[in-house]
Write a structure and sequence with these properties.
It contains 40 helices and no strands. It has 665 residues and is mostly helical.
């Protein structure tokens, strides 16, 4: 029973797939025959899918090949015929060769026929290409030559050698390149003969072909013949780009003789070839190569020395490191920077004093940054860190600040005690660098001592740097009440008014109930600076928990300045709720209008009210239309509020706009 079901399923599968390969194929070919660039490619895509599905199915492939042959008739568009040739390159057999042979005779279609014939590894395909080659001219001949070269058929060498003498330069060059692809003994001899003739018109093709042949010889293990070709090409009469390319290939092919060849170039007078020779130093396998070429450094020009340093750095052995280390203090900036960049990747503690010495001698920001990067990258771990720290303690100014940043980068949080110690100094640059690094690496546990450094800061102009480090450290404490506890503890310890003001400002980064209560208590402080700091901090409070306190300040503050600050804080809080305004928001706006004292303050509140998305906002703005002093602001507020609420409260918006037209100032 199971076998019967299986047979039925197989039969159904055959039946279901038959329409795809039979009935639909004729229509697909008909549609594809009309294809023009820019039209739907769906018919072509379906045919490609059929061809992919035909792998291993000889009957289906034969049917599809027949379909592609039909598509090559003159009734099809050029794009359709090109598509058919592309597919025949994959599935074509001897059956498609006659029609492709006909296409070769027409200059318009010779190129697309070569698409198919270049990929078909059929003896008759080569025969057709060879037979047609002598009968065509112009571009068709070039395309056939290229196709023959792609076949790499040694039987074509004689014919291609004849084409090398063609009066059409393009034909001759195509034949030369085709011979290089075949690269048998006869082809190589023909190309060698052309090198001796040195005809300018075909020179580029001869060089290209020679390089192809040499590369193949190296791959085949025949280095002797390859080297002979390279040496033949390495002539001063050749363009410099050719000489460079040949020289690089020569170094790669002749690894045993590379050292001597590099030295010959370095001791020669051709400065254009020296960069190629120097670059090859990094590829040498000899253990003594670094020492040998280290001795060449003083003989080179500064730019060449810089290149040699890079080459030696790529070797990474002890001799190379020693040579590079000696150039860290070079008088030439190019050499010096190359050595600095290289040594950071190669060396460890030994190079620290030299890099620090170089750091102390330069005022160039770019070079200072390069030295800092090198010091940060040095190997050696704790040993290197210890030496850098010793150098840091001896240094001053920008040198010390750079080393502080290096220690922080190398040690991370482990450097915090050292950085904290540095903040007690009086030298601006190092203290600034210490606070900047502390901002990156401190944790919540470091906050108490960091607050101590803030309040005991000896350099007033760095207060913002210190506060920034504190704020970023506070942000790393997830529990907000823990932040508040640390700041309040510092407040309890400090009686200095300036210090208390700094600490009060930090409560804004806590903004919990305890922080708010602390600020409210500070409003009654005997010192006016402390009171003002508390008020200014409250005006920036992030939520409405400060609303009532600000209202009280607005009503009872001893100075107009404090009352003005309170109003601005209240307006800012009210504005934050505009997008989600509710009855509570409207009550707060009513409080604001009840507490304004002049038209300038009314304008301030109106500008905030204009953003409130709530119908009650209209009832607050409309009465002010009759006040000529604020009429313009009131009109704008009514229009903006009406536009914001018209979708949900169309009647209220419409009524407000009508009243706007009828109300006179």
């Amino acid at each position: 029973m199971k076998s019967l079901i299986f047979a039925v399923l197989i039969a159904l599968g055959i039946i279901l797939t038959m329409p795809l390969y039979a009935a639909d194929l004729s229509q697909l070919i008909a549609d594809a025959a009309k294809y023009e660039s820019g039209q739907s490619v769906e018919p072509l895509q379906k045919i490609e899918q059929l061809i992919r599905d035909s792998v291993g199915k000889s009957d289906l492939q034969a049917e599809l090949e027949t379909a592609m042959i039909k598509l090559l008739t003159s009734n099809s568009t050029f794009e359709a015929r090109r598509f058919a040739c592309q597919q025949l390159a994959v599935i074509g057999t001897d059956a498609s060769l006659p029609v492709l042979a006909e296409l070769l005779k027409n200059e318009e279609t010779a190129g697309i026929a070569c698409l198919a014939l270049s990929c078909q590894r059929l003896p008759k395909a080569v025969e057709i290409l060879s037979n047609t080659l002598t009968a065509v001219r112009g571009r068709s001949r070039i395309q056939l030559i290229i196709a023959l070269g792609n076949h790499r058929d040694m039987q074509s060498v004689r014919l291609l050698t004849e084409m090398v003498r063609d009066t059409d330069t393009d034909v001759a060059c195509a034949a030369i390149i085709a011979l290089s692809k075949i690269a048998d003994k006869s082809s190589c001899e023909s190309i060698a003969a052309l090198r001796k003739e040195a005809k300018p018109a075909i020179a580029w093709a001869v060089i290209d072909a020679s390089l192809r042949v040499a590369e193949k010889l190296v791959a085949d293990g025949d280095r002797k013949e390859a080297l002979a070709i390279y040496m033949d090409l390495l002539q001063p009469t050749q363009p410099i780009n050719i000489q460079r390319g040949v020289l690089a290939a020569l170094f790669s092919a002749d690894k045993h003789g590379a050292e001597k060849r590099i030295l010959d170039v370095l001791h020669g007078s051709d400065s254009m070839l020296k960069p190629v020779a120097i670059a090859a130093v990094g590829l040498l396998k000899s253990r003594g190569a670094s020492k040998k070429f280290m001795a060449e450094l003083p003989k080179l020009q500064p730019c060449e020395q810089a290149m040699m340093i890079e080459a030696l750095a790529s070797r990474g052995d002890g001799a190379a490191v020693a040579a590079i280390r000696e150039k860290i203090l070079s008088s030439d900036v190019v050499v010096r920077r190359s050595a600095i960049a290289a040594i950071g990747k190669l060396d460890g503690a030994t190079s620290v004093p030299l890099l620090c010495q170089a750091l102390g001698k330069t005022q160039d920001d770019e070079e200072i940054q390069a030295i800092g990067s090198a010091l940060s990258d040095l190997k050696g771990g704790k040993k290197t860190n210890k030496i850098i720290m010793e150098e840091m303690k001896r240094a001053t100014g920008n040198t010390r600040s750079t080393l502080i940043s290096v220690i922080a980068k190398r040690c991370g949080h482990a450097a915090v005690p050292v950085l904290i110690e540095e903040t007690a100094g009086t030298d601006v640059a190092p203290v600034k660098a210490a606070f900047h690094s502390l901002a990156r690496f401190t944790t919540g546990d470091d906050l108490p001592v960091l607050l101590e450094r803030l309040v005991s800061l000896k350099i007033p102009e760095l207060r913002s740097d210190a506060e920034s480090a504190v704020v970023r450290t506070m942000a790393r404490i997830e529990n907000i009440s823990s932040r508040t506890d640390v700041v309040c503890a510092a407040l309890d310890k400090n009686s200095n008014n300036e210090s208390r003001c700094m600490l009060l400002r930090l409560l804004l980064n806590c903004a919990d109930a305890k922080a708010l209560a602390t600020l409210k208590a500070a409003l009654k402080d005997s010192n006016p600076d402390v009171r003002e700091t508390a008020i200014r901090t409250l005006t920036d409070w992030p939520d409405n928990s400060a609303w009532d306190t600000l209202i009280e300040i607005r009503k009872q503050a001893e100075k107009d300045l404090f009352r003005t600050l309170a109003l601005r804080g209240l307006v800012r809080l009210a504005t934050k709720q505009n997008a989600t305004a509710d009855t509570g928001s409207m009550d707060r706006y009513r409080q604001l209008f009840a507490n304004v004292q002049n038209d300038d303050e009314r304008k301030l509140v109106l500008s905030a009210l204009a953003g409130a998305v709530h119908p009650d906002a209209l009832q607050l703005a409309l009465p002010l239309l009759s006040n000529s002093a604020v009429r313009a602001e009131a009109e704008l507020a009514v229009k903006k509020i009406a536009a914001a609420i018209k979708d949900k409260n169309p009647q209220a918006a419409q009524d407000a706009l009508k009243k706007l037209k009828t109300t006179k100032p």
